[in-house]
C-alpha cells in the first residue's frame, strides 16, 4: 500500500492539512470533539500521524537515547554485568518518558542514528575504536561508562584501587601468581600476552585493573612475567574455561589467580574443584563485579562488588541533566571463602 501523506488524508477527510496537523501536534488549536473526530477518522483509514523522522529533524528532539555497547548486541545482552547495567538505564529513561536504542560497539559508524537520538550513553570502550572518535566529534551529549572520552562526563568506579585491594587481600609473601585478564591485547582467542602490544591501554578499565594487581604484587615483592598473564577476548564461559585449564595445568601451579571478572573466576573455581584442588588451601581465587552467581556459589567468591544497576541509573540521570561532571561510584570488597 502507498503510504498516506498529510495532503492525501486532508483530501479524503475534506479538511485542511493544518487541521490534521493540529489534531496530532497542537490539540489546543481544536475543540476536543473536533480533535476526536479527526483522530478517529485517521485511524479508520490507517493514518498514524505526520512523518516522525521529519519531525525529529525539524524539532531536534526524539526522546530516544542511544546506548552504545562495547561489543556486539548478541554478546553484550547475555553478559550479566551488561544486562543489569541496561536495566538501570532503562529504568530512569522510562521514568522520564524516554526511549532506549541499543547500538552495537562493533558497528561501522554512528552516522546511521546520530540525527535521530537526543544523546549517547557509551558503556565500555567500543570494539570499533572509530566509534569513540565519532562520538566525540558530534555535538550531542555523551556520557561514558567504564572508560573516558576527553571533555565528556564519565561514570566509573576506581578500578585500580579496587583491584589493588582485592589482590592485596589475597596475596601472601612468596606466592606464585597468575592473572586472567580481559581484552588486554588484540587477539580473537584465549592466550598468554607475552610481548604483544597492549590494546587501548590509556582508556580501558581492564588496564586499570591490571595496574591495581601489579601495584599489589610489587608491594609484596612478587614478580609476574607476561607469560603468566592470560588474555580473554570476551567475558564468556568458553574462553574462561580454556584459560582455566591452561593455568591450572601449568607447572608450577600458581598459589593465587587474580581474575578480571566473576564469570572468569567462577569457571576457574569449577575447573579447580573438578580437579580436586582445595580452595583456598591449595589455590586462592579472586573475581571482580559482584554478580549474583558469585554470591550463590560455594565456596563464596572473593570479589569486588559494584552495582551495575546503580551505574546505569546514574549514567542516564547524568545524560538527562546535561551536567558535565564525572562521577566515581562506591564499591565493596567481599573477601568470601576463596582466599
From TrEMBL:
UniProt keywords, alphabetically: DNA-binding, Transcription, Transcription regulation
Single GO MF descriptor: DNA-binding transcription factor activity
Pfam families for the chain: LacI, Peripla_BP_3
TM helices/strands, residue ranges: none
Signal peptide: none
Domain HTH lacI-type positions: 4-59
SUPFAM superfamilies from the UniProt entry: lambda repressor-like DNA-binding domains, Periplasmic binding protein-like I
Gene3D superfamilies per record: 3.40.50.2300, lambda repressor-like DNA-binding domains
Domain of life: Bacteria
InterPro entries per record: HTH_LacI (IPR000843), LacI/GalR-like_sensor (IPR046335), Lambda_DNA-bd_dom_sf (IPR010982), Peripla_BP_I (IPR028082)
Name of the protein described by the UniProt record: LacI family transcriptional regulator
Protein's organism: Alteromonas alba
